[in-house]
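To whoever is on call:

I kicked off a structure prediction for a single chain this morning and the downstream step that reads the tokens threw a length-mismatch warning. I double-checked the sequence; it's 180 residues and nothing unusual in it as far as I can see. Pasting both halves so you can look.
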Amino acid sequence: MMKYLYNTFFKRCITVMVSMNPQASIYKDFGKKILVSDTYHPEVLKEMHEINTVCDNKFDFCFISDDYVDAKIKADPEITRCMTIYRNAGFFNSIFSFQGRVLMSAVGRNNANYICIFKQNTASEYENVIKEFLSMYLPSDMSMREMVEFVKVATADHQFFCIDNITGECYISKLSASQI
């Protein structure tokens, strides 16, 4: 999904990505246009912002965090600014891909324009994503157990929920084999 989003919407951007496995084969076809680092450097986000501040938003930047699991990125003030102030300035794009919702701060999760929810690993995590993200889109007369079963079926076989927080809509979708 991360690669699809990048290739479809952000390929034109100056992109920096952090991953704890930058040598992974998934990144091989990105080419040289993306700078991939195995270490998060908050000053990079700050400098992207400063560049566009003095250059009248001339540059489209994109920051990608792909399964970067570290407390310093979760609680970093620059990540919070990325998800709020920088994003709202209209020149800063970001993609955050995590295996679990709590790996991103609550401020970040609550300020995302779009959220994709895929299959979860435990019943309790299904309940958590339903409570935090999906309950307002599911029928209110469903019990939690029914919601969990519905979300399990809806996210099977690489399907996912896409929440559009800009329009307030939620969809069930799936990338085709050619999109992956």
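Update from on-call: the warning came from a stale cache, not from the record. Cleared it. Sanity check on the structure: The chain has a mean pLDDT of 90.
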